[in-house]
Design brief:
single chain, about 350 residues, alpha/beta, 2-enoyl-CoA Hydratase, Chain A, domain 1, 3 domains, six-stranded mixed β-sheet, four-stranded mixed β-sheet, 14 helices, about 20% strand
């Protein structure tokens, strides 16, 4: 009888945990070997993670890491709209906003989730089935590899909604894309297309997801070839505009989303990982993960402290604005906020009411 090294046995309710047979080079299942699929299951809220889901991801990562029969971990989500858009904003707005002591405990769990990915004994592949934004971007970058469907979008949301991307992006993103691009993404929060993310070095592979007349075509909403505009600048992966975008949207409506190419690419990649010496693979991963861990371990606790205290000021205002504001306006009035702070106004409920769209 082999010993169990799991901390406890878990019944998953917020996420899905599946073991799928590994495939050989011919596409046939291999006896006794599996890939563990950890699947976020909150598509109604773009697969944002609740506190309970974070706990389950930690335990699932641990379970997959300890399972002798598991070759690789696939971290993904239900549907084709979003891999993950970060923490559950309803929970943030209704429970954590204004409660820094509670949010600090939550951030302990979030930090443990990121660490459970970085410390997994198996390679972790992020199957990016849709948007990877905010905390979703952070847990995605903690993975060892990322394979995306080409309608996926990548980016941050923190400074727009009352936070800072200190759950991993300020540590990891410069390692992927360089300091200038990381600075732009983490502050301005403009999302990147999958093709832009691939070019920047954020992804291993991008595959098509739109089928028109039975054939896969590249995402028509963005430029997928080098395109030279009137100023002679090369644009790749940028969103189209005007008449071109309108035509592209009509083309999208005529097709269907199909993630079978994404599944095929993920399975093919996991097969490549199977045909490697397991301990040599693990040592190589851990040697390379040190570059992420060097920054993550240095900053995660002080970042947790700041993120908790921020729930008394900009976090409280920003998350409640996003959760409670009208659909067409979910951001605080940034200009009014800056004006009031310039006048020396203290952070209190009167200030929050003055800048919040739900009270306008």
């Amino acid at each position: 009888m082999l010993a169990s090294h799991n901390l406890t046995e878990v019944t998953y309710k917020e996420i899905l945990f599946e073991k799928r047979p590994c495939l050989d080079h011919g596409g046939k299942p291999v006896d006794g070997l599996f890939n563990a699929w950890i699947i976020l299951n909150n598509p109604q809220q773009f697969n944002s993670y609740t506190t309970e889901a974070v706990k389950e991801v930690i335990m699932a990562m641990r379970q997959a890491s300890n399972d002798r029969s598991v070759v690789a971990v696939v971290f993904t989500a239900v549907g084709d709209k979003a891999f993950c858009t970060g923490g559950n904003t309803r929970e943030y707005a209704e429970y954590y906003a204004g409660n820094p002591q509670e949010y600090k405990q939550y951030m302990r769990l979030f930090n443990d989730m990121v660490s459970s990915i970085l410390m997994n004994d198996k390679p972790v592949v992020c199957r990016v089935n849709g948007m990877r934004i905010g905390g979703g971007q952070e847990i995605g970058m903690a993975c060892d590899f990322s394979i995306a469907q080409d309608f996926a979008r990548f980016g941050q949301a923190g400074p727009k909604h009352g936070s800072a991307p200190d759950g991993g992006s300020t540590d990891f993103l410069p390692l992927f894309v360089g300091i200038e691009s990381a600075m732009f993404s983490c502050t301005v929060c403009d999302p990147w297309s999958a093709h832009e993310a691939l070019r920047a070095g954020l992804l291993t592979e991008v595959v098509p997801a739109l089928k028109v007349n039975g054939e896969f075509i590249p995402n028509p909403l963005v430029y997928t070839d080098q395109w030279v505009n009137g100023k002679g600048q090369i644009v790749y992966g940028k969103m189209k505009a005007g008449e071109e975008l309108a035509k592209a949207k009509e083309l999208v409506k005529s097709g269907v989303m199909d993630l079978s190419e994404l599944d095929k690419a993920v399975e093919t990649f996991c097969t490549k990982l199977m045909y490697l010496m397991p301990n040599c693979l693990s040592k190589t991963l851990n040697s390379l993960r040190k570059h992420k861990l060097e920054h993550w371990d240095k900053n995660k606790e002080s970042n947790r402290d700041w993120l908790a205290l921020n729930m008394m000021t900009e976090g409280k205002a920003g998350f409640r604005a996003f959760n409670d504001g009208p659909k067409d306006k979910r951001e605080a009035d940034f200009v009014k906020l800056r004006q009031m702070l310039a006048e020396g106004h203290e952070w209190n409920d009167d200030l929050i009411r003055a800048i919040s769209p739900q009270f306008q």
